[in-house]
Specification:
- The complex is a heterodimer of chains A (about 230) and B (about 290).
- Chain A contains nine helices and no strands.
- Chain A is mainly α and about 230 residues long.
- Chain A has a single domain, classed as 3 helical TM bundles of succinate and fumarate reductases, CATH 1.20.1300.10.
- In chain A, helix 2 crosses helix 4.
- The mean pLDDT of chain A is about 95.
- Chain B has about 290 residues and is α+β, with helices and mostly antiparallel strands.
- Chain B folds into two domains: about 120 residues, Roll (Ubiquitin-like (UB roll)); about 160 residues, Orthogonal Bundle (Fumarate Reductase Iron-sulfur Protein, Chain B, domain 2), CATH 1.10.1060.
- In chain B, strand 6 and strand 7 form a beta hairpin.
- In chain B, helix 5 packs antiparallel against helix 8, helix 8 packs antiparallel against helix 9 and helix 9 packs across helix 11.
- The N terminus of chain B is likely disordered.
- The chains are: A mainly alpha (about 230), B alpha+beta (about 290).
- The structure holds iron/sulfur cluster (2 copies) and FE2/S2 (inorganic) cluster (FES).
Chain lengths: ~230, ~290
């Protein structure tokens, strides 16, 4: 009996990489998205409430906060995105020939992933400038107009960055919705990947569950966006 | 038991008024050999009662003349069982991947009057015209150990009993005829077609092809076969080997859950249920591998 040939270097870890990609999409990336929406949603309760939420986050401290940000937010997102791009490149979408709803969801999952990655990259540069190191800030972030967010004047700077122009507001709308779809549909495929919902009936129920999750996230995200776009700080 | 399938739509009654002698056209995407140029040719035929796509190809073979009067080489195709159990005649018919032997002309003309379009599958190397090389499917079945190894030197007696439920599930999976429809429709299953390198021996070429086949995605038919043989009480004795193959390179992790496969499988095999169950088994398998040794 012939045994499978030895795998390539990537192939040896393919299963782990794909499962890791699936897992970090939810934890911590998905969880962060939820927290991020809840925080920003508080702008609807007034600039003071939003400022308080931001202060709570920053009360972690100037050493702890960056460590948490890098390990639980930035690096997982970058890892998820890079693996995701490899996944996109290794598939051959065929929605034009097989026009099924699930195939649309599969295809849209890839599109929203790419859109979300581009949006997040821009959004993080625009508000935080990617890296907080002084040379980078002086020579890259500020010349390119990034790093506009100031935690001490959270409401004023956050609303200003959304209200910069109609294009920016539109980009936020598309970006938020792409993230929401990608997370909600991602939870659904994750349930199949790990074997949580197996039968067609269970997968239909899971679709509804994930749609509800997506709807809830959309309300939170769009509410936060609405608040940022309409709150006027004097 | 859900058996999501489009076979019901394939085999629905025909309300067509196709009359014997009625003219229709058949457009065939042809190719004279591996990696050769592809070109279209159109043939005019007369309808006969109960015609299917195999009889269409037989008529073309009898009189291989295009509708503009050129004598051409007959169109090559494969078939065997003529009752949709061998999978040999799988091709794209009006853009649908399905078996030619059960594609009834009256029905096709009802859906798209006047013309039928035949193309070879796109995920397998074309050998000639509508004949493709599907040997990769069998390499995959070898990879995942899609059989129950028993040595038959002496009588082992009757095997263990199986529950009705297990038998029914196994029956569904056992209907797979390795036709490749599920692979043709799968956005994660990509074509592999190699070319001979300068001075390469057939042995070296075959070894290279085998490696490429072993590393690429196995597809949902194979995942269903892992479920089938691992659910068999004797087959389960090699469950670990099959699960190892399932999580190896090109294994179940490549699936992107588009669920096209279950929609096109002519045998109505619950492929997505198999994928999710095998995913669960793979999850358990990998944890056991890490923590139980
Ligand atoms: S699972 Fe269905 S579509 Fe796939 S090879 Fe088997 S019979 Fe064909
Ligand atoms: S569910 Fe998986 S195996 Fe089936 S068509 Fe989609 S990607 Fe391919
Ligand atoms: S000839 Fe066997 S399936 Fe068509």
């Amino acid at each position: 009996m012939q045994r499978p040939d030895p795998a390539s270097i990537f192939g040896r870890y393919e299963f782990l990489v794909r499962r890791l990609h699936s897992l970090i999409g939810l934890l911590p990336v998905g969880a962060f998205l939820f927290i991020h929406f809840v925080t920003n949603f508080s702008i609807l309760d007034g600039p003071a409430t939003f400022q308080m939420r931001v202060d709570q986050i920053h009360s972690l401290g100037p050493i702890t906060l960056p460590v948490v940000e890098w390990s639980c937010i930035l690096l997982p997102i970058v890892a998820h995105a890079l693996i995701g791009l490899i996944i996109v490149a290794r598939g051959k979408r065929n929605l034009l020939y097989y026009r099924y709803a699930r195939n649309f969801r599969y295809t849209f999952q890839r599109w929203t992933g790419v859109v979300a990655f581009a949006f997040i990259a821009w959004h993080v540069f625009d508000t935080r400038g990617w890296i907080q190191e002084s040379w980078w800030v002086a020579h890259v972030t500020h010349p390119l107009g990034g790093g506009t967010f100031d935690a001490a004047r959270a409401a004023a700077t956050a609303t200003a960055s959304v209200q910069a122009s109609g294009w920016v507001a539109a980009a936020y709308l598309v970006g938020v919705l792409a993230c929401v779809y990608h997370l909600a549909n991602g939870v659904w495929t994750m349930g199949i990947t790990w074997g949580a919902w197996t039968s067609p009936a269970a997968q239909r129920w899971a679709t509804m569950l994930c749609a509800a999750v997506g709807l809830g996230l959309a309300v939170m995200g769009l509410g936060a966006l609405w608040g940022m776009a309409t709150t006027v700080i004097r | 038991m859900n058996t999501t399938s489009n076979s019901s739509s394939f085999h629905r009654p025909i309300a067509s008024d196709c009359q014997p002698g009625q003219r229709f056209y058949v457009r065939v995407l042809r190719q004279d050999g591996p990696r050769k140029r592809r070109y279209w040719q159109r043939f005019a035929l007369e309808y006969e009662a109960d015609m299917n796509c195999i009889s269409v190809l037989q008529r073309i073979a009898e009189n291989p003349r295009t509708d503009d009067g050129r004598d051409v080489a007959p169109v090559a195709w494969e078939c065997n069982c003529l009752e949709e159990v061998c999978g040999a005649c799988t091709m794209l018919i009006n853009g649908w991947v399905r078996q030619a032997c059960t594609a009834l002309v009256a029905q096709l003309l009802q859906d798209r009057p006047g013309e039928i379009e035949l193309r070879p599958m796109t995920k397998f190397p074309v050998l000639r015209d509508l004949v493709v090389d599907r040997s990769r499917i069998f390499a995959i079945l070898e990879k995942i150990l899609a059989w129950v190894p028993v040595d038959s030197y002496y009588d082992l007696g009757p095997g263990p009993r199986q529950s009705q439920e297990a038998q029914q599930m196994a029956y569904l999976y056992s209907k797979c005829m390795s036709c490749g429809c599920c692979l043709e429709a799968c956005p994660q299953f990509l074509k592999i077609e190699l070319e001979y390198r300068e001075g390469e021996t057939p042995e070296a070429y075959n070894a290279r092809l085998r490696t490429a086949n072993m590393r690429a995605y196995i597809g949902s038919h194979a995942i269903a076969q892992v479920e089938l043989f691992n659910s068999n009480p004797i087959g389960a004795m090699n469950a670990t080997e099959r699960l190892d193959a399932l999580v190896a390179e090109g294994g179940i992790q490549v699936c992107g859950n588009s669920q096209n496969c279950v929609r096109v499988c002519p045998k109505g095999i619950p492929l997505t249920t198999a994928i999710a169950r095998a995913g669960r088994a793979a999850t358990r398998h990998i944890f056991r591998k890490w923590f139980d040794r």
